[in-house]
Amino acid sequence: MKLSCLPVSFYNDIQNGDMSIGRWASIARQEGLDAIDLSVILISNHTSKYLNYLKNDISSEGMSVTMITTYPDFTHPDRQRREREIEYTRYDIAISAELGAKYLRILAGQAHPNTSVESGISLVVDSFKQLDEVASRHNVKLLFENHSKPSVWQYNDFSHPTDIFLEIFEKLKDTDIGINFDTGNTLVYGDDPLPVMEQVIERIETIHVADTAQRGKLAPVVIGEGIVPIENIFTRLKEHGFDGWLCIEEASGKGRAGLSAAIQAVKSKWSSA
Fold first, then answer.
1. Domain annotation for the chain: domains and CATH numbers
2. What average pLDDT is seen over the chain?
């Protein structure tokens, strides 16, 4: 089992300069993680000098980057905006490659009121396929996630409803795009995660281990203290022979104490699954 973490609880500290990414890598090493994850909102620019500095800061702690998360909006009703979103994601692919990240987590886009389901699915699939070709040239693997709503968006994820997520997934089977399966987001929509995971399990590369306190609402808690059946999910992954990354999405707001508790919970549940 390989373990990394997306430090959502540290986002504000990193963005306002109270914690460097190098410091995050140091904390991750001390907590026994195998690597770290980053969001593009934590990476302040794409200049070579800055990215080399960042890469050296991370490697000096004996760590590497497993996955970078980004927030493209391929369902925007404005064509020029969608074209810009593709260009932004090309940059994100390049940044991922520069930092040595194996994966870039991508999203469908927002559920804009003026974008129909049929049109949105077509826009997402077309955008994903364009970017899959770019990613393959940079040795970065794109991962589509069953997402809910990032704080940087106005609307919920277009593919948050399970049927839309699965339809997009089916239309991507002729690509190299994999799945980053989030253990909590399906419950946020009101559906059980195990039946959904079963339908995409063949393409799962990474797991976002997340927890929520309520069904039907995004209410992050310390992992292991919510209602997500994490141990049952792990059991099914083991039965399937999953040997990818468990990427903790630590969003409890409890700081390092929440991170430590999440890591211990995930290790314990994986061991007992």
1. 2-272 (3.20.20.150)
2. 97
